[in-house]
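Field: COMPLEX_INPUT
Field: COMPONENT_COUNT = three
Field: RESIDUE_TOTAL = 885
Field: MODE = joint
Values follow.
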Amino acid sequence: MSETKYIPKSKIAKWFDSRLPLLSLSHHLKEYPTPKNLNYWWTFGGILTFCLITQIVTGVILGMHYVAHTDHAFESIEHIMRDVNYGWLLRYVHANGASMFFLAVYIHIFRGLFYGSYKEPREVIWIIGVIIYLLMMATAFMGYVLPWGQMSFWGATVITNLFSAIPFVGESITTWLWGGYSVDNPTLTRFYALHYLLPFLIFGLIILHIWALHVPGNNNPVGIDIKKNSNETMPFHPYMVMKDLVALLVFVIIFLWFVFFAPNVLGHPDNYIEANPLVTPTHIVPEWYLLPFYAILRAIPSKLGGVIFMFAAIFVLMLLPWLDTSKVRSSVFRPIYRKFFWVLVVTVVLLGYLGAKPPEGIYLILSRIATAYYFIHFLVLLPLLGRYEKTDTLPMSISDPVLNKPGFMDKFKKAAAQYEGDDVSSFK
Amino acid sequence: MSKETTPKRRDFLFTATYTIGAVGVGAAVWPLIDQMNPDSSVKALSTTEVDVSNIEPGKTITVLWRGKPIFIKRRTKKEIEEAAAVDLKDLKDPEKDSDRAKNPEWLVMVGVCTHLGCVPLADKGDYKAWFCPCHGSHYDTSGRIRKGPAPTNLEIPKYEFINNNTIKIG
Amino acid sequence: MLVLLNRIIFIIFISVISFSAVSEEVNKNYLKTEWSFKGIFGTFDRASLQRGYQVYQEVCAGCHSVQHLSYRNLSEKGGPEFSIEEAKTIAAQFEVEDGPNSDGEMFMRPARLADKFVKPYPNVEASTAANGGAYPPDMSVLAKARSGGADYIYSLLMGYENPPSGFELDDGVYYNKYMAGNKIKMSAPIMDGIVEYADGTEATTAQISKDVTTFLVWASEPHLEAQHRMGFKAIIYLIILLTLVYLSKQKVWSRFGSKQEAEEEEGFDKVEKIVTKYEGEDPKTFK
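Field: COMPLEX_OUTPUT
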């Protein structure tokens, strides 16, 4: 893992590094050999780290002004929006930041699905990633409850009520979650505490995620193993740092466009109505990034069945490294799988669309078809494809395209042709 | 190929990028810091108007302003004369009474001891004015420190009479 | 480049699905009118805001609260921008509860700039009971609480008409073209001349509706102009920075390219040397 041992220049640096090797760590990260053929889909890890830091910083600051009590929550957020210096900016960054965080994580996940990043030996990285995704969803769900609008309250009611579907212990668990007999102040205060906590757990998992990644090294678009210290890699700094920065700036432009010019388009107007336990909104919907799971939940006719399938949809992701039996990593060389990959993308987007529609008529039928495809894709198609798909030939190295540079091979062939039959050892 | 690029031109691009980047970082960080400054609802409460028409000569009232106690005392002639007669040389923090009470009948002071912040008690102490029980500071009828560990006189806030009966503080 | 084309089509598909899901309600045919605050350079028409405040106060405030607004907001930048004195005078017309005094009693006093707008009813239940069981919603963020926003509110105010034949309406329920379900318990609040504008603007139903809607949009988003100003600067700045960073990235990466070429050249030179050594041929013939 450590390529060259880092020797700090100054005496102080040596003293410190020998006691806590932070400088060595920093050197390792800077010099980390990264495949030179990574494309821009690989920049989303860095973008996600930026999103987490943004959410934590704006979140802690909002926490200085927010009041977690049913009588004051909505009002305290209006206070933030109106009175706190730049409060409107902090609130909109945090709310839209959550959406951007999920946009980035979905691109990051689909990148993994396309390029086989979850395959051996990167299974643990992938599983940690799924756990991070779960924690993100829990954090976002609880965060959305805090403004105590109509959607906050009713979304919390619907989702916590799901636990009552569990046989025998369901009701007790739900009461335990609520801290009462319905979603009310005790629920709000504990959601606040946990919403503040979870991101730091996510942060810890990200460190493990990157640590696990640095054992085998990054995957790459071609999906073949590369040697770490070769001309096939480049040090992370400055090359990948600069590339990540370009991608991050594009991302931030889109992010800030939402914040300044369309800050409420991704949200739901009903959440600007104060929570009222006596009035149910016509359509209860979660935020867009949870819609696909909401669609799966409502596609299954039984309450418990819906819950099971919804969690199974996430759990099946964890099993992916073992469901996909193909020896070939990257979809670049898997022509059939590639088509099914895009079908999966369309399916998930469709599920998202259907999650916002009432679960009836054509919407319900399509939700069931899409849910069926989702599970068939992972549980049936992938194992079968692994065995029967005829994959394209893999290149010898990731530099293959470079060796095709005009003239190079000709020169070599010409020289070699001259010396046919000679003792090869004399060439050294 | 790139070796032919003069170092000057190459550095300029990077320097320009760093500089412009730094401006952005500064602009992004400022709201994170400024949000902790008093917000507009707090700033709106930064002035208080007090009706003083019911205060008799010799009496002191205490009102809350910006979270702190304010002593408003309507002084008697005797108290005003005592305060004016003090020799500045005897004062730890020399200040003329007329500078502290523009309208000598009215004394308006922040009731926070300048030593460590306790609230002094009225009509107590060696000067029959204010006495701080925490560490024994004595203030006179002009609110000036005469004895004890406090370093300076009781603070005079910004105030004005907006009419005969009302003082606006702040 | 077929790949690129496929990608573009895919992105369009995703955007269309997401956009149509998001802008669902905008498809309703709301009444069209020009809003000065729409668009990235939008600003509020100050005179309209001041008139709108007057409409709120004279027509709506009897039933609808705007409890998150403070009187000082009327004089702050980005809003109706009444002078401080005008705002103080407005506030002083209303009484707020204060206390306890030194006797332990609560008392009423004239409102000041720092106070929140007074509410017509002390709580939601009182308001509901006094209005035939229908709660007149607080309007502090109403423009954000209804999909369609300004267009919806304006259309609703203008949307009272006779119900189609056979449409059943209970007592105290009115027909409105834009209300969900077409039934609304608020009678038409706006009529020609129901207010007399201080600035002499003709007080038609359309004008009054427009002014009060503008006021309500400001009430929901008092910092809108600052948002737009800052947003414009931020995006321009980021585009400039992106260009610089991209050029820097290209420059940094070109170093790696030449390093690669240098290594290849080096490798080829070695081969060339060895080959020449064993043959004596002129290396120039290899080019």
